[in-house]
């Protein structure tokens, strides 16, 4: 990378900080980036409170407070290109699961009825108020580039920054996690759904073939498939594939249940019901995005409410 230095702003909204850590996780490649980039506003590296004019703006996290909204709008005004960086920014992320509950229920759970916090203080006077919902950033500002992942893998971070710095097309695929997984998807004889702690899965065979739910086939590969290649089923942290997002009637639970039923002796309806009962897990990373929430097959609030009322089949 060479030539005139690119001015970079970053900011974090409602998030865990992991995406900013991932930027540093470029290891020695960060030196290549720093040759070409001047870092300006960046909450983990600089103490610049305002938002200087910049070529690239990286936003991590989603919008849950007035502060988040203000920061996103300021970044949009000052940055030529905005990257929604990480699953929280792109789809709302894990805390998007707050969609399943009202703001008051969340505050009650975290502050009033939590044995490890003081129950007489609700932090609404000194910090900006919690918004009603978690909002992915492109519902508030225009976004130019999306880089999902929780956090994105350094390979994809470097590629996306290099793409912008070198002004070229990105070399990334839209493959699912399965494309990088070494496990064989073969017909198995599992007759019941297994939970993570049930038995020891064969590490050469697809989790689905063995009766374990794995979201690799409905998840975009922005991670190089570390989980299934190291003994853990994919939970979908990089967000859904383009097919799931763009085709109205394709849904995470219907896709996985159809595929898993073909690979086992378990019928698709049983798997679908299981996916609904565990919807908070299966949809954890992307339930706040309208692309998932507005699907005709999607009734997550009802599924969760039915489970909590003990009436889900
Ligand atoms: S996408 Fe994941 S790593 Fe990044 S801020 Fe959100 S929770 Fe943290
Ligand atoms: S479903 Fe999971 S275990 Fe099976 S091939 Fe895909 S990523 Fe691998
Ligand atoms: S394999 Fe799945 S859960 Fe693991 S990092 Fe990739 S997307 Fe996330």
UniProtKB/TrEMBL annotation:
It comes from the Bacteria. It holds the Pfam family Oxidored_q6. InterPro entries: Hydrogenase_assoc-protein, NADH_UbQ_OxRdtase-like_20kDa, NiFe_Hase_small_N_sf. It is found in: Periplasm. Transmembrane segments: none annotated. The keyword Oxidoreductase applies. Residues 16-163 form the NADH:ubiquinone oxidoreductase-like 20kDa subunit domain. Keywords: Oxidoreductase, Periplasm. The keyword Oxidoreductase applies. SUPFAM superfamilies: HydA/Nqo6-like. Gene3D superfamilies: NADH:ubiquinone oxidoreductase-like, 20kDa subunit (3.40.50.700). Its main location: periplasm. This is Methyl viologen-reducing hydrogenase. The gene is mvhS.
């Amino acid at each position: 990378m060479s030539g005139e230095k690119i001015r970079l702003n970053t900011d974090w909204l409602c998030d865990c900080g992991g995406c900013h850590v991932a930027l540093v996780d470029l290891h020695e490649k960060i030196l290549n980036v720093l040759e070409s980039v001047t870092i300006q506003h960046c909450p983990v590296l600089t103490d610049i409170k305002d938002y200087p004019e910049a070529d690239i703006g990286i936003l991590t996290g989603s919008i849950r407070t007035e502060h988040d909204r203000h920061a996103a709008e300021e970044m949009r005004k000052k940055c030529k290109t905005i990257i929604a960086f990480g699953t929280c920014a792109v789809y709302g992320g894990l805390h998007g699961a707050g969609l399943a509950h009202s703001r008051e229920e969340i505050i009650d759970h975290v502050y009033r009825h939590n044995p490890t916090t003081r129950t007489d203080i609700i932090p609404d006077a000194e910090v900006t108020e919690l918004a009603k919902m978690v909002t992915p950033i492109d519902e508030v500002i225009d976004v130019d580039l999306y880089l999902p992942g929780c956090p994105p893998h350094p390979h994809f971070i470097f590629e996306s920054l290099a793409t912008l710095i070198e002004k070229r097309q990105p070399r990334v695929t839209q493959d699912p996690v399965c494309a990088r997984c070494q496990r064989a998807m073969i017909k198995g004889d599992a007759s019941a759904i297994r939970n993570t702690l049930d038995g020891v899965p064969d590490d050469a065979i697809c989790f689905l073939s063995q009766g374990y739910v794995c979201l690799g086939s409905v998840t975009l590969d922005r991670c190089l498939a570390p989980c299934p290649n190291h003994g853990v089923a994919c939970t979908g942290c990089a967000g859904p594939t383009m097919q799931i997002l763009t085709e109205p009637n394709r849904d995470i639970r219907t896709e996985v249940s159809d595929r898993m039923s073909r690979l086992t002796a378990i019928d698709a309806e049983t798997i679908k019901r299981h996916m609904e009962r565990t919807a908070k897990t299966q949809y954890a990373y992307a339930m706040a995005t309208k692309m998932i929430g507005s699907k005709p097959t999607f009734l997550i609030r009802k599924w969760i409410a039915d489970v909590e009322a003990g009436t889900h089949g």
